[in-house]
Amino acid sequence: MIDRDMIWKAVDTERLALADLLERLPDDEWARPSLCDGWTARDVAAHLTQQQVGFGAALAMLIRAHGDVGRGIRDAARRRAAAWSTGQIIAAIRGMVGSRRHNAGVTCRETLIDILVHTQDIVIPLGRDHAMPTRAAVVAADRLWSMRWPPPLPGRRRMTGFRLVATDADWAIGAGPEVHAPISAIVLLTAGRLTALSDLYGPGAPELTARLSSQGTRVR
How far apart are CA 147 and CA 144, in angstroms? Predict the structure, then answer.
């Protein structure tokens, strides 16, 4: 059984923590690149205000992007990043706390993945520390590995053939050469963030590192 209350509480906690962190960022750091290729920290923060999009708005976004989902999401985030002030973006993230709405076609688990991963997209390049909560990361990892819709991420597909073992949680999955890492690193790599490669160790780590590094990853 999925504890939806626990998931939403984790989402709320991370939204508040991110809003607090964003309030402390100087203007120049909002313009810095994130872990998402071609996205600034501001773009990612603006994207996180768009976690309650209904079917009508989602369809309009898709039509505007000529059916390209990734392009539609990116362009919508950039438009909002350009149109909204820093204060508006922060206020919108805070304003979603307590809400149980999520984007059309997904569940609360995808909302959790979004806030966990995108927060790291912002903070890691800036050298700012915000630990991914372990319990929430386990839920995110479970969902990333069981996901059938939306389609599994490229990072998830490329990690097939290894047994991943979390070093800080009771979590393991897969079959093959063992690769050990903190659960947060497993979440980030599954979501395509190669910055976590340095956290891998174990018999399968060199092979998995080479596979992911050589093929690269498209994040979303």
Answer: 5
Question: Of 190, 193, 138, 146, which Cα lies nearest the Cα of 169?
Answer: 138
C-alpha to C-alpha distances, 57 to 63, 69, 103, nearest whole angstrom? 10, 13, 10
Query: pLDDT by residue (tens digit) across 123-173?
Result: 999 999 999 999 999 999 999 999 887 777 788 889 999 999 999 999 999
Q: Is the pTM of this model over 0.70?
A: yes
For residue 165, report the phi and psi dihedrals to the nearest 5 degrees.
-125, 120
Greatest Cα-to-Cα distance within the chain, rounded to the nearest angstrom: 49
Side-chain-side CA neighbours of residue 96 (13 Å): 31
Q: Is residue 173 included in any domain, yes or no? A: yes
Tell me whether residue 111 is in a domain: no
Domain of 92, in residue numbers: 4-105
**Identity of the residue numbered 128:** R
The two three-digit tokens of residue 110, written as one number: 């995808």
Residue 205 lies in a domain: yes
**pLDDT averaged over 10-residue windows placed end to end, the chain, 220 residues:** 88 98 97 96 97 69 63 86 98 96 90 97 96 97 88 85 97 97 97 96 97 66
Whole-number Å distance between alpha carbons of 142 and 144:
6
Kindly state the tokens that stand for 161: 């053939």
**What pLDDT sits at residue 105?**
82
**How far is 65 from 71, CA to CA, in rounded Å?**
6
Beta-bridge partner residues of 181: 166
pLDDT of residue 67: 61
